[in-house]
Design brief:
Structural class: alpha/beta
Low-confidence stretches: 151-156
Length: 156
């Protein structure tokens, strides 16, 4: 194995960093940036306005992907794959960001699930010109085989 592509969107304290993974594997380790994680960092930083979200997101994504091998969206997990394939209009992104900010204030949870925002972050990722990973809505992490939907259990 010459290179590991590492999704850095879900990181635990016990996980190896990219340099540690490269050293442990005696191979290269390249980052795959999770688009939704960048959005969740951006919405709570900066001026905190809905109007500025789209520009702040694009700037942050450009910075985060400067040395990345690709990007990943977990849109299918959070919304499914039945969505409008076109990029959302700027006004729609601002409106959705405003709803998200109000939801964060009310509930405290910073998790992007709005389909307009998910489309925005996906298209911003596509615009970076890097490979895009868009996994299906089920995965081994859910206990299901993503290819067959069969339950992955020790008993078979």
């Amino acid at each position: 194995m010459a290179c590991f592509l590492i999704d850095t969107g879900y990181v635990l304290d016990t996980m190896l960093s990219l340099p540690e993974m490269a050293a442990a594997a005696d191979a290269q380790a390249c980052e795959i940036v999770r688009l939704e994680q960048v959005a969740e960092q951006v919405i709570t930083a900066g001026d905190g306005t809905a109007a500025g979200f789209a520009g702040r997101y694009r700037d942050a994504l450009r910075d985060r992907t400067r040395h990345a091998a690709g990007v990943k969206s977990i849109m299918a997990y959070r919304h499914g794959l039945d969505f409008d394939p076109d990029p959302p209009a700027a006004a729609a992104v601002t409106g959705a960001a405003g709803r998200w900010l109000r939801e964060i204030e009310a509930r405290g949870a910073v998790r992007v699930t709005d389909p307009v925002l998910l489309r925005h972050v996906l298209w911003a990722g596509i615009d970076r010109g890097l490979p895009v990973q868009l996994p299906p809505p089920t995965s081994w992490a859910d206990g299901l085989n993503p290819g067959t939907g069969a339950r992955a259990t020790p008993s078979g």
